[in-house]
Amino acid sequence: MLDELPDDGNRYELIDGELFVTPAPSDVHQLVVLALATRLRAYLRPTQLARAIISPSDVRREDRQRNRVQPDVFAVRLVDGKRPPYPFDLADVLLAAEVLSPSNPRYDHQTKRHLYLRGGVPEYWIIDPEAHTFARWRSVVDPGELLTERIAWQPSPLETPLVIGLPEFFEDALG
């Protein structure tokens, strides 16, 4: 039924059978997505670990009829040097990042955070373009941290982390 909804610019996601509809993203949202995806792609491309993906791109879990989301930016683990079958499974995701939705911040902070972390995603970020911050969680019980200067991500077994200076990131994305 989700595939039969109108192509009207809205994003339709399904979590535990509940439909979530969000409006088309703003230019600020898309500029931040592009800035993060560019950095993530440059970091991952030389490796055989993962690839950077942007939405719209489906990620599903167990009951695929009741669970389909589209993280703004994510890293999907390679299997034998290749992308896993599409649509991706939640277990294939190494990092999920959402640009904060001003229309429904609870959806990013609560619903999606719990879905990703309970589903085994090792790290989840929420980027707030207005406050120029990244929030990061690494497990369901992690209280999270709010970052204003830099964020580093180093998935195993990579030896060098991806380090993003946040003031420069937001200047590049939005300046």
Q: Any idea how many domains?
A: 1
CATH architecture: Alpha-Beta Complex
What's the helix count?
3
- Name the quaternary structure: single chain
End-to-end separation in angstroms reads 41 Å
Number of strands: 13
Share in β-strands: 25-35%
Q: What is the CATH superfamily label?
A: tt1808, chain A
The whole-angstrom Rg is 15 Å
Strand arrangement within the widest β-sheet reads 3-6-8-9-10-11
Tell me briefly what this model is:
With 175 residues, the chain is α+β, with helices and mostly antiparallel strands. Helix content is 23%, strand content 31%. The N and C termini lie far apart (41 Å).
Describe the structure.
The protein is built from 3 helices and 13 strands, in the order ββαββββββαβββββα. It has 175 residues and is α+β, with helices and mostly antiparallel strands. The protein has one domain: tt1808, chain A. The strands form 4 sheets. It has a 6-stranded mixed beta sheet with strand order 3-6-8-9-10-11, with helices on both faces. The chain has a 3-stranded mixed beta sheet with strand order 5-4-7, with no helix packed on it. The protein is globular.
Question: Which short descriptors sum up this protein?
Answer:
3-stranded mixed sheet, 6-stranded mixed sheet, globular, 175 residues, alpha+beta, 13 strands, tt1808, chain A, single chain
Blueprint (SSEs and pairs):
Blueprint: E1 11-15, E2 18-22, H1 27-44, E3 50-54, E4 59-60, E5 68-69, E6 73-77, E7 88-89, E8 93-99, H2 105-118, E9 124-128, E10 133-137, E11 145-147, E12 150-153, E13 162-165, H3 166-174
Parallel strand pairs: 4-7, 8-9
Antiparallel strand pairs: 1-2, 3-6, 4-5, 6-8, 9-10, 10-11, 12-13
Helix pairs in contact: 1-3
